[in-house]
Amino acid sequence: MKKGSPFGTHRVISPKGVLPQPADVIDNTMEIYDNEVLIDVHTLNVDSASFTQIEKQADGDIEEIKKIMKGIVAVRPDIDQVDIKGQAILFQSGIYAKLPKDLPETLALSVLDVAGAPAQAAKLVKPGDTVVVIGGGGKSGILCLYEAKKRAGVTGKVICIGGSEKSTDRARKLDIADEYFAADATDAVGIYEKVSALTDGKLADIVINCVNIENTEMASILACKDDGTVYFFSMATSFTKAALGAEGVGKDVNMIVGNGYTKGHAEIALQVLRESPAIKELFSKMYS
After folding, report:
1. With a threshold of 0.70, does the pTM exceed it?
2. Do the bridges between strand 37-45 and strand 81-90 make them parallel or antiparallel, or are there none, so unpaired?
3. DSSP type of residue 79
């Protein structure tokens, strides 16, 4: 059996020296190396920003989505899942989690898809913090709100910003924040003014961006106090816009790339469903 790199670089054909994910061409032969595992794949969870892009390209047509994604068996656009017949190779450094026996498979997959978000929230938020979650009515946003409220405690404040009244009400019914309002996440000044009013001008210690649309960088940055932290979980984020935008308005904030992995992320995300019957019930209706 051939010896492979822990990071899968032995699969890269071009350009040389890069890792598999950003590579232009990779070797997809199914003969595995000594540090790989070949697995059958039944369902893919596509990240929300990418699925939104594909839907727009296909003009919402399911059959066109299947063509774009190379003949997929079934498409569930409401939960960003597709069923396929295929195989995948997991490298030595690849992350995986066992599906829990106490939760439906599609529900667990949907939550594991965004597991990094609540886990990062759990790591970042401290007792007494003021936390703003932009996109708080969505899947990752709700999980982040729950963890933020849990970690900030009674001395903290958690603010949910939904993308619509419907999504905001969805979070409000779960009672996982202290303040709720709906806003256009691209309206940076509008969100700044609202958050400023709700915090007596102090702004947020932590801002978590969970939206799946572009041009929301400055709303996140303006809502954060100097020396605070902005966590961009959204894959629609332009880090060029974020860096230059913060510099342009003289904001000294710490900005974290939306790394979908942190230690214990799967366990933390799934535990939310076990701790909160209300979230489990909502997610079961939406994603099971």
Report:
1. yes
2. antiparallel
3. G
